[in-house]
Each structure stands twice: as structure tokens, then as C-alpha cells.
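Input sequence (205 aa), recorded before submission:
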Amino acid sequence: MPFYEVIDDYVPRPNQVIMSGLLNNSKLPWYYNPRTTHSTERYQRHQYTNTFFRFGEPTQSEDDFRILRDVLPFPEYDTHTLWRIKFNMTNPYKNRGIISPHIDVEVPGIVYLYYAVDSDGDTRLYPNLEKGYGRWWKWSKEVRVSPKQGRVIRMSTDLWHSSCVPHVYEKRIVGNFVFLDPSVSADDIEKLRGGREYVTVPPTE
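Predicted structure, C-alpha cell format:
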């Protein structure tokens, strides 16, 4: 059963400032991605990403990972398998269409979305949506969460969600932390490594 909770000021203000400074540092590389998810729908738009952990393996230095863990001490570090840490940065875009919902992985676990800066471009959560949805998802019940520095969404991996680009602020930076439940088998983890990073079921055109 999908669940979520929204937590403001998840970490103290000094930790928020450290994260904002880290991600706004001119020495931090951001990599261009032409799409937000794997869907081929017309509302897709580009984003810039920086990945610290991917497919259960670190992609940056131990020092960088230690800083992240100290500044954002999610309890699942000690109870779950860390699968991904990725920060996404989007900029204003003329098209205001909403990208169709996705989930991050198809196995049990916990996802954290951490808003690193104040911005606009709400995250939309769809508690009643299920895999195999069609165009009707646009009329499904949604919960909108606005980007606010220090705010966190903690949710189950089976909760469908989508994002929007900012239109008022110059950028939107969101961290995506994915933890796999201890019940996930080694075989399932290997299957995840061979699959796509996101599970998207595009609407029927």
C-alpha cells in the first residue's frame, strides 16, 4: 500500500546551508540529460544531474558520500540497502505540461526526496494510481508538494509521482535517495542492475 509523509526542516538550518552550498558550488559538475524519465511523451524536458550512488555502488569519493550521510542522516542507511543518490536540477521551460508519473524501482523500499533550495515546480504524488494506467491518470487524485529548502518527502517505492520544472525561480534542485527493503533478494537486485533506472508507463496517446 503506497504511503508518504512530508517533513519540513528535516535537518537543522546549518545542515540545509551546507547542502545548498555544496550543490550551488561552481566546482560541482552537473551532467546534461535530455529527458527526465524514459517516457517518450512530448512533455519530456531536459535536466542536469549529479549522481553520488547508482545501482548500489558509489560513483563519487568516500569523502563526498560521508558528507552527504552526515548532513542528511536518513535512518535507512543502517537498515536498508542504499540503491541510489542522485540530485536533479531543472531550469524554467516554456512548456508547462506535466510529465506522466513514474516510480523509481519495482521492489519494496523507501524513497526520500530532499529539496535543496526554495523553488516552484511542485512534485505531484498519486496515491491511487497503479501500474498500467492510461490517459486517465490526469484525473486521478493528486497531492502537490512545493519545493522548500529542507523539506523532505518520505514515501514508499510503489508511490507513483511526477515533477515539474520551475517557472518563477531560476532553478529547482531535488535529491533522490532510494533505499531497498531488506526483503529484496540478491536475484532481484541483479535484475534491477540490468533494467532501467525508472519505471514509467506513459499515457496512451
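Checked by second reader. Residues 33 and 47 are 5 Å apart (CA to CA).
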